[in-house]
Amino acid sequence: MAFVKTYLIPRLIHYFLVLFLGLTAVFVLPRLMPLDPVEEQIAQYQTFGAYIPPEQLEQIINTLRELYGLKGTLLQQYTGFWRRLFTGDFGPSLAQYPTPVSELIASHLPWTIGLLSLTTVFSWIIAVLVGGIAGYYRGRWAEILDDIVMLIRPIPYYIMAIICLIFFGYIIPLFPLGGGMGIGREFSFNLETIRNILLHGTLPALTLIIVGVAWQFQSMKLIVQSVRAEDYVRYAEATGVKKRIIAFRYIIRNAMLPMVTQLGLQFGFIFSGALITEMVFTYPGVGLLLYNAVVKADYNLIMGILVFSVVAVATSILFLDLLYPLVDPRIRYK
């Protein structure tokens, strides 16, 4: 019961507060822009040579304002925003009218979830193990590895994506240049389709894993070096406990705790990196959908993806927070 009061409830309150502020920001920020999306849409129609009679212009403007959720006062728009949010109705996509925004996001979401979940888990495990071993077993190889990580760590996701694309797509053409599946191939549950999907997802996944490992490797190494100086580790070494047992059972296991917290803090960057990587590789996830929405000025779709992003990141961080007591038993009994 103490766990619920002192740990669970405060985090749930924090979660709903973050959601409220984040979603309010999604509502407010586009309205602070000097551009009116309705006027931009009308101008776009006229650019393509469409003639709009003056008597129909007002009706079109009112229709577009209703579709964009821009009709009425600011308070009415804000109320309508939350009503649409709770019903999951973000209106139709204007670029792919009349397909609903929620349907488009749902069709692209599995690609992003698959890519993001696998790369996040793999990069975290690799960083924890390699960083932990490099922090405990000091040597020339650990210094060389540290130097390599120092070179990779400042590289943004999109630059790393381009490097992987050039190297593994052109110089050594091992993987497809982009897409989620081969051209003309339909999804079906068979080994050939799964192999094709994995082949197309390798370069985006490799990009995220390389950058993710570089971010977390040095943190794990420094934490391990700090834990190694603890009295219980020195005592275990003095009593002749095997180095392998000390490294994995005493040091890396305890060093994992702050790494779980760090993963929660970095998840927003990892999520944004996944979206950018999808754009580079034309991977059919939410990131590519967002890019196309921005290019085509699809206001409803942009708003829907931003709302989804806020909810997804906040929920993932809450999940990691609730997972932390399973890793650190001390929290459960406070």
Automatic annotation (TrEMBL):
CDD domains: TM_PBP2
Annotated TM spans: 12-29, 111-137, 157-177, 197-217, 263-281, 301-324
Keyword Flavoprotein: no
One of the protein's GO biological processes: transmembrane transport
Membrane topology: Multi-pass membrane protein
Primary site of residence: membrane
Domain of life: Bacteria
SUPFAM superfamilies registered for this protein in UniProt: MetI-like (SSF161098)
Family, similarity comment: Belongs to the binding-protein-dependent transport system permease family.
Protein name: ABC transporter permease
Source species: Aerophobetes bacterium
